[in-house]
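Contributing new records

If you add data, match the layout below exactly. Sequence lines come first and carry their own label; structure lines follow with theirs. Keep one chain per record. Anything else will be rejected by the validation script.
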Amino acid sequence: MEKKKMIIIGANGSGYKRTIPALKNSDICKVIAIQSRNEEKLKNICKEYEIDNYYTDVNEMLGQEEFDLIYIANPPFLHKETIEKCINFNKPIICEKPLAQSYEDALKIKDMFSGKNIPIMIAHHMRHQKAFLDIKNIIDSGKIGNVVSCFGQWGFNIKLDAPSSKWKLDKNLGGGGTFSDNGIHAIDFILGIFGEPNNVIGNSRLGNFAETYSNETMMLIYSDKDIVINSSHTMPYAGNHLLIYGTKGSIEIFNAISEKYIKQIVVTSDNGKEIINYEEENLYKNEVENFIKYYIDNDKNVIKGTTIEEGVTALKLIDEMRKSMNSN
């Protein structure tokens, strides 16, 4: 089968760090062209990964290349205008997380797809692994009873000298806090397992930064359980665990939420303690290949990934959490 041809917009950040290397040996996808504003870096990327063409202008790449899908890897404050340019080409789109830098813009993006049969997935890599399906299946099976409590976290120490930190720590560009960056992965993982909550409250702290929240905690309130999620930009030794407790047992995943695959989960139930180990997976490769299989090849046996509705919901929860804090 001929490989699907993918172009990448904003290829010199996470696209270069994660997506392009992940697809180097893909059997079903080939990156044929990349775009960013840094022409010298583009030349080097093309040489390193044997990519045919590069562009500094998005419209030029969209107009000249023959492609099967688009990967939008530029910062979230550019997603709305980038999607406006891409949507007219009626090609499937993978968009980096979060869908937008604000809930308001996310709703506008969702409206763009209304009435159009154009697949779009938000690039949340954490869902694209076997452990994710196992966690859902264990909970759905009733093995640990009814879930009553859960804790998830993604904290790290942001590198202030990294180019991306300039916009991430700009309130108007980065979304306003750590939940708009790394923490949204934890939110997405929880949404994928438990769905949308009935209510959300929380608190945010500025910490070391002048205008963006460096530490944030939200509580998702369901009819039968409460889930706490923590996110941080100033926590170099965060555990980043996912701990799920039910009426008959628990699922404990230490170092669960990160850029890498889940290595092990520990399930405790009436049958005792069970340890499930996992083989290494490249989640960034999985997310692109699953998207192609599901939406282009119509293989519904693979993980669907994060929908645009779920991408909007994640930003809605962040917005409502911060409003709840400011109303107190």
